[in-house]
Protein: EF-hand domain-containing protein
Organism: Triparma verrucosa
Amino acid sequence: MAEATFSREEISALRGIFSLYDTDDSGYISTKELEAVLQKIGRSGDDAEKIMSGAEEVASEGKITFDDFLALLEKGNKEVPGEGPDPKVLEFLRILEEYRVKCEDEGNYLEAGRANAQVETLRRQEEKRQQKAIRARQINERTEVQIAHNMQYTDFNAAWDKYMEEYDNMAEMYIQQMTERHAVKLLEFQRGLQKEMTQKPPKWSRELLEWRRRQHILARQKNYSEAQKIKKIADSLEDKERGSMNTSHAAVFARKEASFRQQQQAELQALLKRIDARRKEHIKQRNLDCKRLLQRNRNVQAVLESKQAVESVKAFADIKKDLMHSLAMSTTRAARKPLSTN
């Protein structure tokens, strides 16, 4: 379980600290010594109390092994800080640096070299961890901005879709209103034209009028037999002429109706043309607004990435500088005061 929490370098450093209190190399330290170890690695307060309470449960005759020690640390492990320095690692570095100076002062150069290698490994690891945390935060910032842009783009399209739907519905209503109005006007025109043609007196031919004149003269003369013959001839001619007039009237009616319908169709086409032209203007404006929105969002992303690049350069330099400064301070303190195991 501990391996999932601590790296190999951290375990090695913890083992070195543990061994400082395992003075008889028995592989055990007492719970009292554990309290001192916790203080050295920066575990205090409620965190230390929980670890000490757990130690009482696993201790055998008041002592714990190194594996017990790791398990207890894992159980009470605090959440690792984000971008800032990890106090636990800094404390490891301080202890290891003091141990390195002690070994160097005592002439134990091989051990000092191993301690120095662990210091460098932990320092680089902490440096990379903080850099990784910064990158993760920057990626999260860019992701949040991209999500916001995606939502903005979705809202933009939704608003335009709604607007175009309303426009199409309004256009459909105008077309329907004009179609209904045209139907009413056409019916009125047909009725008016029919009435006009019905009320217009027929124009008979001279031949028919002459037959009718002779018919009436014979009737007034009481020559009914001849009058009947003439009437039959006149009626036949009138039927023929009436049929011809009806055909002519129908042709005139159809021609005028077609002309009226053509005017209405032209009016409808003009409306459709205006609707289509206006719709194309809306689509053109939508595409223009979309390009502006996407370009503005790209500019925001570019500015953010540029800002983060500058921030990373400075932050990475500060991380390295701070870690080196921390090690230098530890070396200075170690030179003034020998490492204590109590």
